Amino acid sequence: MNSDIKNKTMLEQIKCAIENKNIISHFQPIINNQTNEIEKYESLVRLINENNEVLLPNLFLGISKASNIYCEITKQVLENSFLILQENQGISISINLSMSDIENEEIQNTILFFLDKHSELGKRIIFELLEDERIINFKVISRFIYSIKKREVRIAIDDFGSGYSNFERIFRLAPDIIKIDGSIIGGLENNNYSRDLIESLVYFSKKQGIKTIGEWVESESTYTILRNIGVDYSQGYYFGKPAALKISKN
Predict the structure, then answer these.
(1) Residues 31, 234: contact at Cβ < 8 Å?
(2) In the chain, domain spans
(3) How far is Cα 204 from Cα 170, in angstroms, rounded to an integer?
(4) Percent of the chain at pLDDT above 90?
(5) Angle at the Cα of 130 from the Cα atoms of 81 and 10, rounded to 5 degrees
(6) For 43-80, how does the pLDDT look when each residue is reduced to its tens digit (9 = 90+)?
(7) Could you give the CA distance from residue 4 to residue 8 in angstroms, rounded to a whole number?
(8) Res 131: pLDDT
(9) Of the options 3.20.20.450, 2.40.128.110, 3.40.640.10, 3.40.50.1370, the CATH number for the domain spanning 3-235
């Protein structure tokens, strides 16, 4: 099957999934390093196709962004995440947003609609700003951040230490949370450079009142090092893979 036919087939699957509410979220736990308890979950998009197979985002997000349907995927992820928050009072949910999401007026309006409709949930929502895209219109981004912070929502910079991420983004975006990229965490046990970098970032973050999360934590030894350095939270397969989450009401 050539790439054009393959892309067309996938696009049809995406449209079908949107129509049938088969854009779902799996949730990965985020652990408080002091209490060892699950305190947050990251909402990660998945697609269920006509064969009832669960597809990872690398198979469909790129194609959806090249069409006019990506916005619909983001809206369903928001709906999924707010529903989970309503079902449980004890957790926070972290939701990924790309720069193109934020610059999209329809997405902005959807987010503000949900936040105003469920105003009690704002303090338990974190929007992760993805680090794989440059900020095109900072005024739009800045206004958006201001509007959601007024509603008690927190901001995280995702994958800090990779791609375009740098300290300038911290100064400009004023995040509440920094997620340390897995490429740095992965070399932590055998690489002094990685450890020194994380220690410097933790020192800076604590001085600024910013929380830190270590991603891609896959072993107890990595977790122990992060905890000893002073990283606030950990996330990775050591604690749990992304999975469907059904939480009963308290």
Answers:
(1) yes
(2) 3-235
(3) 11
(4) 74
(5) 70
(6) 999 999 999 999 999 999 999 988 889 999 999 999 99
(7) 6
(8) 62
(9) 3.20.20.450
